[in-house]
Amino acid sequence: MAKTYSNKINKIRSFALALIFIGVIVMYGGIFFRDNPIVMLIFITLGMLSILFSMVVYFWIGMLSTKAVVVTCPNCEKQTKVLGRVDMCMYCREPLTLDPNLEGKEFNEDYNKKKKESAQN
Ligand SMILES: [Zn+2]
Fold first, then answer.
1. Which of 44, 56, 102, 107 has the lowest tally of Cβ within 10 angstroms?
2. Where is this region: Disordered (predicted)?
3. How far, in Å, is the centroid of ligand 1 from the Cα of 64?
């Protein structure tokens, strides 16, 4: 899997948006099974579940956003939100860190997890 970094909040937001599209497509797919009400019902239920789940994800983003730290990006000078110890700028993908110890180091999403293990290796 190619490692493409992006801002975490943006990533979750596009995931939620994709869920809505999938839900609509699945529900639309149910129309092709008009002759079979049970299959149609399954499609519509799956579509609704997908849309409901995306709403949960949107709610979760809202919760995360309140915890995220708003910083001004040193590169593009726009306001962006940092989630966790390292994150990317929403606009120019400049790696940002809240931890002064990591400043100047190469960007690595692993800094967000398993701090102890990477120190041992
Ligand atoms: Zn920026």
1. 56
2. 99-121
3. 20
